[in-house]
Design goal:
By secondary structure, the protein is an all-alpha fold. It has one domain. Helix content is 65%, strand content 0%. It is built from seven helices and no strands. The relative contact order is 0.18.
Amino acid sequence: MLIENFQHGPAWDELGHLPAGILHWRYGDFRPYAVNPPLVRLIAVLPVLHTPVARGLAPHSGDRPEWDAAYDLIKLAGDDLFGLYHVARCALMPILLLGPVSLYMLGARY
């Protein structure tokens, strides 16, 4: 699975989620990607939050500012773009284990 993260680029909606999460943390701006709850974005961007690329990202105005921020992220990251998305995807792997472990523990109680 880790190798596929490098082989496959971000999906079309992932392009907006990563910069939106960065803007949530850095500026407290929850307008980007307001059509989805922010918790997963907030967790995913934690490992990339202090990179120079994240520090260079600025908020935008408009109805869907995440797409302008995604364009800026692509320009800022350059060749490191796939690496940023890879790290953000890996940060979500513990959440994938949380559900099955919780269900096992609940089932083991009864």
